[in-house]
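Worked Example 4.2. Read the sequence first, then its structure tokens.
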Amino acid sequence: MIKKEKVLVAMSGGIDSSVAAMLLHEQGYEVVGITMKTWDYESSGGTRKTTGCCSLDDINDARLLAVELGFHHIILDIRKEFGDHIIDNFVDEYLAGRTPNPCVLCNTHIKWEALLKRADQLGCEFIATGHYAQVRKENNRYVISKGLDRNKDQSYVLWGLSQESLARTLFPLGGFSKPEIRKMALDRGYEDLAKKGESFEICFVPDNDYRGFLKRRVEGLEEKVAGGDFVDVEGNVIGQHDGYPFYTIGQRKGLVVAFGDPRYVVKIDAATNSVVLGTKEDLNTKEVFVRNANIVKYEKLPPEMEAVSKIRYKDKGANSTISTTPDGRIKIEFYEEVQGVAPGQSAVFYEGNDLIGGGFIDKV
């Protein structure tokens, strides 16, 4: 078999990245595996054991697979960069009354940057990950499209990638479903790998308790934000809360305030340490503004275009019109009301299966 180009494959130790490495190896690429150490779970103070990536077991699993398949594997310690950028931003966003999107930031500013830098050092033409997405070149642009498995599609978290990054990126799993990936692992004799569960969305909060993480991360946080007001949409004080960073848009449970009908968090005001509660209908909006946008499919957006826009990862998307405002933001006008838009989360725009681009939700 004629060897293809050299590719650096990000290997977390999980099934997706492991099968991605297997496929590229079988296709004749010269594979180098790399596992990025981003976080020490022992220092997180969580109550549940990690099941996703970066644990010693996962690193060993990735290394063992590389040894068995006969390609080189390295470990890259990026804990400082990850902490300085991703963790600090995560905390800062909650303290600003927003809901952060750490996976997008990590992909854009940490993982791809670290991968491409090490790829250059190792003489690798390409990098590859186990994301369920696809990339192609069209009209001199590299375009991301949805993965074949719509239940696993991860194009939403890739909107921040640059054209330079996409030009060197491979997504080996984009044309397969998750059941097919599990079967591939089984067919190759990796039964334990095929049985591995899904990783947590926020890798550095292994117990999925972001409130506990914030309390451990920010000394004296509970005292600093205690005693804030719950207010209704007219501004009337209707109760006391535990501190605005511990609430998210759309939250209904844990409000410690009794009403005759359900109330939801509809707005968070960090400046006044107040949390606005309203009805489910108060969560509705038809207009959203997006900051720090990155346009992937086109060099420049037309003055106005139709798109299907998603306001969260598991959102199925809704028909909308997108346009650029004079201050450089993207304005989304939905044809019908959407619910639970959270500043700080990502809004992503699609044309068919193609990712037009995305950005961070600004004030709604």
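Now turn to a second chain, presented in exactly the same format:
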Amino acid sequence: MKRCITCGKMIKDFAEFPCADCGTKIARCKHCREVKNPYKCECGFKGP
């Protein structure tokens, strides 16, 4: 299980991808991806 970077929920079904700026792995839940909630990486990079 991973924690969604946007909503903070522990999730089993997630998408994981590298940050476009620093390469840190980012995990997001299906809901946050579908409604395009913004996220912020630990490096400060923000994405939709």
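Notes for the reader: The chain has a mean pLDDT of 95. The CA atoms of residues 18 and 25 lie 4 Å apart.
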